[in-house]
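Incident review: delayed structure delivery

Summary: a single-chain prediction request sat in the queue longer than the usual turnaround. Root cause was a stuck worker, restarted by the on-call engineer. No data loss occurred. The affected request and its eventual output are reproduced below so the record is complete for anyone auditing the incident later.

Affected input:
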Amino acid sequence: MKRKFVTNLFLLLALNFLIKPFWIFGIDRTVQNIAGAESYGSYFALLNISFLFNIFLDLGITNFNNRNIAQNNQLLNKHFSGIVVMKLLLSILYLAITLIYVFIFSYTKAQIFLLMVLCANQFLASFVLYLRSNISGLYMFRTDSLLSVLDRLLMIIICGLLLWGHITTEAFRIEWYIYSQTAAYFITFIIALLIVIKKAAFKKIRWHIPFFLVIFKQSFPFALLVLLMNFYYRIDGIMLERMLDNGAEQSGIYAAAFRILDAGFMLAYLFAVLLLPIFSKMIKEKEKIDEMLKLSFSLIIVPAVIVAVISFFYKFEIIGLLYHENVESSAVVFGILMMCFVAICISYIFSTLLTANGSLKQLNIIALIGMIINISLNYFLIPHFKSLGSAFASLTAQFTVCFLQIAITVLIFRLKINYKYIITLLAFIIVSVCLTYFSKTLNINWLLKIGMAGLVSFLSAIILRLINLKDIFKIIFKKP
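Output delivered after worker restart:
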């Protein structure tokens, strides 16, 4: 299992780091600069609304299905034919709930139209994730890795032509950005669908109400978890846009900082994609998870700390390089938000293990606590500190959730606390902070300073044996 995890993790990371950074910093950043803070802020708020209710597109089916298919491959045919119908019915529910929300809060016709297109994008993206859960559940990790970047690759091609291809005389509009996503998601959806249909030997869809009820009952805890997590991940931009007179602009300032954090989710999510089926199978077969947990944690915490520390010390340089408007305000928000990255990465490891174990009740209670903290702090901090207040609210909620998940994992799996490892981790964090702070004093280009700080920090992780290269090479080259 270690070899399967490490080798496929490296493939997944390689593909995603080839494609997604260009999407984020080449396409998305360019669109944000062209559109301006207010226009992009309005889009960002609408996007968060489409995310807020997208749990009703899935109701936890994808996470439940990934775990279930990983443990019982033979159920793919039976479950796929019925779940397809459920997904279509849930899309109607999702659309209805979203429309009720926008009518209650008096959105304009133009905003409602764009939101409906974003809802269509969410439907396609959700269906692709469900299809990929079948593919990864069958341990087809290489195919899943390719599908994980296909939509972004298509978006790069389409948006690149619209931005720089001189195929239109009109100025780029935010609507084109949304339509490009629709086209890319649709093509990816068709390809993923064909792969799963072939593997499932699919012949026809099944309308079977008792089956729907059984799946709904089993997947509901997953659904509740995703709903609560969406609230404490995505509510900030919406509350900013609604609570302040210049809400669209403040949401745009927050979006500029959050967009880079959102890109960081990619690293944590890629770990979760691989770990969920692996942890699920290990738990079913009663294998010890200690070593896999330590390996995955070590591999994610080192880059997470390095990225967070560098982002904090070089926040003004990074935001100034990427954006043209509200650089100082966005940079301060960015420095705080990137501290969340460490908590998010840790949380993805432990929440994935708890999900694989079926500990959904505990995860939902923790997520509810995180949501209450985030919404409450946003309510009190936004009027006084605006986007910066949202950043502090998010930071508090994320670390609270992270520490609670670690505590619950230790209790459920009766893990022994490795004090030597904790001390080593703290030493690495201190060394990374000191090295990055020292790099600021060097009289060279700041990009070189970042490179040196990152490289030396990584080497310190190897010296401290947080990352054991010898063991990793043994895992990779060991015969399966």
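Verification: The two ends are 9 Å apart (CA to CA).
Action items: add queue-age alerting; document worker restart procedure.
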